[in-house]
Amino acid sequence: MIAGFLLHLCLLLLFAPLLQGVITKTKALFAGRIGAPLLQPYYDLRRLWGKGFVLSRTTTWVFLAGPAVALSVPVLASLLLPFGGLPAPISFEGDLILFVYLFGLGRFFTALAALDTGSSFEGMGAAREVTFSCLAEPTILFSLIVLARISGGLSLNSLFGSHLAEAWGTGAAAPLGLILVCLFVVLLVENSRIPFDDPNTHLELTMIHEVMVLDHSGPALGMILYGASLKLMVLGALLVRLAFPWQTGHVLGDALLFLCGLLVLAVLIGVVESTMARLRLVRIPQILIGTVLISIFALVLVLRTT
Amino acid sequence: MHSLSNFCLLLVVLLNFFTLGSARLGACIRAVAIQGGLLALLPILSHGITGHTLLLSGGALLLKGIFIPWLLLRAIREVRIRREVEPLIGYVPTLLLGALITAGTFIFADFLPLLPQHHDGLFIPTALATFFSGFLLLMTRRKAITQVLGYLMLENGIFIFGILLSDAMPLMVEAGVLLDLLVGVFVMGIVMNQINREFSTINTERLSALKE
Predict the structure, then answer these.
(1) Do A293 and B96 touch (CB under 8 A)?
(2) Does B110 touch chain A (CB under 8 A)?
């Protein structure tokens, strides 16, 4: 129990920034550049941690609560989620709702911290972020309901249990494929990746997520960046488990398989980012509503076949 | 075989959604062309390879997958339109309506008194969903070319229905339907060019305002 707990946290805390590094490297290779070293996100975090930070006089404690919550929410959420074949350390009936709304809590505090600065740009960014994630939320909930229906359980442990490997071979393969696509879109939206938002842009008018953290600096910014990479890994873990449902039966083998899956996912995100252009802002809600409809369609299919 | 044909039908439904939600005419035409190509696979997948199914598949692929889309693509190049400007009902509402109707057909298909071997497959609900998506496209779009697409989609729905009966359905009936469609597309193409030349727009609601 304790060993599983520690292994879970070690995997998450150590390897999360690596995924960002892999994504940047893939994008650099696509552009014909050598790119930053794979471990650059770790160096960035260390550099940010060593810096001092500036606090505006108009801000209150909410401004500092934002980064703290942004960092702790993915850690808590990861404890509810099985990493590949490794079962989740904490599991109870209905924890999937807690899982979804933990991220809601994180978003709420990030938006509040942005509003707390009183900057109009940050307010705009917060409004956009909240709009898009409120459209992405039904998709992830419907996808989890589909999984719950297939597995017959209500905890994330049973949702992502060993039955998934067999389910891909039966009539449930079609809805599983559909929600895999839906969850990938949610992953891109929630982590502000390219077709929806550009993590590297610094033009305030088009920024969504990035603009909300403009006033954070030093360790606070480091916490936000680290939290963002943890979030990418936790949401990626959903997809990896869904796409690679095999398990080796051995703890280390499972952990290795999980990490390989995550690396493949990171490369895939890099490829998507290099080959697609950013969508116009008005198109994003259309796409998100489309994915909600596809996930509902997957639910209809599951209800019909089982 | 069964799961492969279900996969094709699923893609057909997704293409329905795409066509309902997309504003670009070129993308819509290509989506319907892919749909036609997928439908051409279905007779072989569900009835095995015989002379009859090969003929059906080949005909469907040539007409639905290649020839009619090619004609339509040529037509939009000639009248120089790229996108549907303002549909009667917006894209997101049409998409929502389409999804509602699709969910409805999936529920409705369970209540139909079908043969037992047709009960589990996706054929009936997909056919109905494609049929109604075509209707929706016909009703909500203003451009003549999107209406032709709706008509094409409607015919795709009928084709899926026909596949279930393709043992009983004589080839002549199929051919007749396809021929009607082809003539329809031709007429539409010619009419569209004429309208465009006369009025410099191909919005169909202007047609009803024609006066001496």
Answers:
(1) yes
(2) yes
Tell me which H or E stretch contains A165. helix A163-167
Q: Which residue has the tokens 């008018």?
A: A205
Structure tokens at A105: 């809590």
Which residues constitute the domain of residue B173?
2-207
Do residue B96 and residue A171 have CB atoms under 8 angstroms apart? no
The alpha-carbon gap from B45 to the nearest alpha carbon of chain A, in Å, equals 17
The C-alpha of B191 sits at a distance from chain A's nearest C-alpha, in angstroms, of 33
Q: How confident is the model at residue B170 (pLDDT cuts 50, 70, 90)?
A: low
CB contact (8 A) between residue B95 and residue A304: no
Contact A293 B92 (CB under 8 A): no
Q: Assess B91–A contact: CB distance below 8 Å, yes or no.
A: yes
**CB-nearest partner of B95 from A174, A289, A304:** A289
Q: What is the pLDDT of residues A126-170, one digit of tens each?
A: 998 899 889 999 999 999 999 999 988 888 888 888 888 888 877
CB atoms within 10 A of CB B138: 16
Show residues of chain A in contact with B130, CB under 8 Å: none
Instruction: Say how many residues make up chain B.
Output: 212
Burial of A156 (0-12, 13-18, 19+ CB in 10 A): buried
Of A285, A290, A300, the CB nearest to B106: A300
Domain total in chain B: 1
Cβ A192 vs Cβ A206: under 8 Å: no
Tell whether B212 is covered by a domain.
Answer: no
Long-range contacts formed by B152-156: CB under 8 A, 24+ apart: B152/B32, B152/B36, B152/B64, B152/B68, B152/B181, B152/B185, B153/B16, B153/B19, B153/B32, B153/B35, B154/B130, B155/B64, B155/B181, B156/B12, B156/B32, B156/B35, B156/B36, B156/B39, B156/B64, B156/B130
Q: ipTM surpassing 0.90, yes or no?
A: no
What confidence category does residue B200 fall into, taking pLDDT thresholds of 50, 70 and 90? low
Domain boundaries, chain A: 2-8+41-305
